[in-house]
Amino acid sequence: MTKGSAAVGAATTVQRRAARPRADALRNRERIVTAAREMIVEHGTEVPLDEVARRAGVGNATLYRHFPDRDDLMGYVVLSVMDRIAALVEEALAEDADAFDGLRRFAHAAVDERIGAICPMLSAAFSEDHPDLLATRDRLDSGVRTIMERARAAGQLRDDVTVGDLLVSLTQLTRPLPGTCCVGNDRFVHRHLQLFLDGLRAPARSVLPGEAVTLEALRGC
Amino acid sequence: MTKGSAAVGAATTVQRRAARPRADALRNRERIVTAAREMIVEHGTEVPLDEVARRAGVGNATLYRHFPDRDDLMGYVVLSVMDRIAALVEEALAEDADAFDGLRRFAHAAVDERIGAICPMLSAAFSEDHPDLLATRDRLDSGVRTIMERARAAGQLRDDVTVGDLLVSLTQLTRPLPGTCCVGNDRFVHRHLQLFLDGLRAPARSVLPGEAVTLEALRGC
Amino acid sequence: MTKGSAAVGAATTVQRRAARPRADALRNRERIVTAAREMIVEHGTEVPLDEVARRAGVGNATLYRHFPDRDDLMGYVVLSVMDRIAALVEEALAEDADAFDGLRRFAHAAVDERIGAICPMLSAAFSEDHPDLLATRDRLDSGVRTIMERARAAGQLRDDVTVGDLLVSLTQLTRPLPGTCCVGNDRFVHRHLQLFLDGLRAPARSVLPGEAVTLEALRGC
Amino acid sequence: MTKGSAAVGAATTVQRRAARPRADALRNRERIVTAAREMIVEHGTEVPLDEVARRAGVGNATLYRHFPDRDDLMGYVVLSVMDRIAALVEEALAEDADAFDGLRRFAHAAVDERIGAICPMLSAAFSEDHPDLLATRDRLDSGVRTIMERARAAGQLRDDVTVGDLLVSLTQLTRPLPGTCCVGNDRFVHRHLQLFLDGLRAPARSVLPGEAVTLEALRGC
DNA sequence: TATGAATGAGTTTTCATTCAT
DNA sequence: AATGAATGAAAACTCATTCAT
């Protein structure tokens, strides 16, 4: 938008400040992140970047042009997953269902987005100062907070559970068991997630030890 | 046991054909497994075997003499952890406390044995036909089954949770977050485990999806 | 010269078939060579060409349009330095000072033009058949020859030293020590150059071994 | 020696402190350093380490076992050359010839050991804290100092030239011209070295600018 | 024409595993 | 039996050069 109008008058002068992100480059970027996400889900976080590049249909150096090193790429994979998860929680909020059911549906949907497979990179990602990442984290944080508050207001959620508690537990419970193909893993994850969510609904039996977990607290850890 | 008595009687000077488990060889074996377990807990499952050997105070070739390849060593690490976990459940059974409390104490103790750190290797390990592993698995299975049945008999445990459900959830919840030092992780694990256990105690809210998880079912997956 | 006059007359709007050295294209060419020279001085001859292009404020493909490959660019860098050195010697000849002093001033001025940093490319450059390079080499050769002859006529320069001897020695003595920042190097170069020049002034103590070095002899070597 | 006698009594206990450097390993180490030196002389300091390994007749990983990274290997190459140069100066001191002639013979011999080819790494090497390197540097320093003092005492060497001045100039003057095969280079080096040495012998014409160069001063630069 | 993007070949380094003492 | 050494295959990353806008 701004881009468009700026370009109209400025095509001749040197001032081409931040340049337009070329269409094919954007497509490649997207393809690389997608390929990386898929391969992480299928083969774990140790995938060779050359394989990712091949899957994306680009040369390895193209990958490195877009993402200077492994961590950088991983940051963007995490960002893309967090973005999708944030969208899911916002969708769940939009539907006017039973409060706890919304929470439950969100959680299972997040699992289907393979949030667990990305987990090993989450803590690292939260340590980054990447502004986009922080923004998305806050968006996710606030969405989940809202959905939890609604359930809590309806008396459907124990008091001492935080956003961080939920997301970390959810993520951990659904992490792939290495050596296990995805499909094998899927036999458990929804089951155990259900079990866990049922527990959240029940009244507190005991005082939770440790500090309440917040997404901010995950940083620098 | 057999091992112990064999070692006692075999310390003669004569060279016997096969299977002479020399005392120092046994000690080395033990040291290697211990070193491997510690390093996995501290640095993840990707530790170079040379590092393990150094930590064990033996040459790398000695490691390979005892464990033909990486998987073999890992199998024994898993075995040793399972052995300790099995012992823990047996201890918990021996104490005559409140039934659910026994279960809870066992679970938290298992976490302190870093069961979560070994997790990534569990499914692989269960795929082996190693007889020792199967025996220990059965011992663990039956111990946990018993402690769960006691709690269930006391009306303290929902009906549809299996041994596999418990062990897999427990292990997943306490897996280290890579990039996170152990100590960082410890801030959550007991908290989330408590949360999960509280849920187990409550009456079932919903029907668990998926098949009930048994330790046998983990094999070949 | 020829270049200059051509540019003057060609700034019309009509598109001519071949060779239309557009003003901005010439400016880019100049900027690229300058950037290359500066970066070589600062970071050695291994600078990535992309860096050179960035420093010049042009795209990398523009660099390649002007200079088909690395060697070609380097040839022009050498040419530009040789051109400056040739100008320096001509300046020194114009001043009417003591003959040896002129030679000395020229040498120190050449060092300040970083002739030593370009050195690694000189022999390669001399191997080219590039006509501009040969012309400039001859100009330099004759300038230095003249200044040396004047000193020799005044009895201030030993007989057996050639233009090539002087230029090669001068260049070698002032080559940057890789791993050493420029400034570190500068602590020595003028000192050692002085030492060397003092030696040139003294009567010959011994017969110089090897063949007398001429600039032509540097070719194809 | 110590090794031998210690081994006699200690073969059984664990105390094998620093172990004996195995014969074949030593040979490989030597071969790698030699290959590296040769290839640096022939192809410059940028030689791929895989090529060095191939030339040494060992696998690349063997090279890395002995020298953890490029700098480490280079440090030892420099050490080996400095060691040979130090030996040369000691030999020159042992012969009772004319003082300046000893200095001259040493210088030309050092050139034949390709001291110039190693030059680009010298300043880096002097920044290292490697104790062996420092020891050898001091040995070289003191040898050259002695030979210079003898010449100075005989009135054959100008007063203001230091050990560092000599070694740096000598090294610079004989650096290979990249792009030039060794043999091409050899046409000049002895000639220009002679020229330089002749200058050292003459009385000082002018005051040398800059600080006097010492080998210590090369450190950290 | 000028440019950002793409790319494959090359370099450094690591590690599971085998070999020789 | 125990060990240090050796090794090749792989993985991360770089760069000169070509392509497409």
UniProtKB/TrEMBL annotation, chains A, B, C, D:
Record's keyword annotation contains Zinc: no
InterPro entries according to UniProt: Homeodomain-like_sf, HTH-type_TetR-like_transc_reg, HTH_TetR, Tet_transcr_reg_TetR-rel_C_sf, TetR_SbtR-like_C
DNA-binding region boundaries: 48-67
Region (Disordered): 1-23
Pfam families membership: TetR_C_43 (PF21597), TetR_N (PF00440)
Positions of the HTH tetR-type domain: 26-85
Keywords, ordered alphabetically: DNA-binding, Transcription, Transcription regulation
A molecular function (GO) term: transcription cis-regulatory region binding
UniProt protein name: TetR family transcriptional regulator
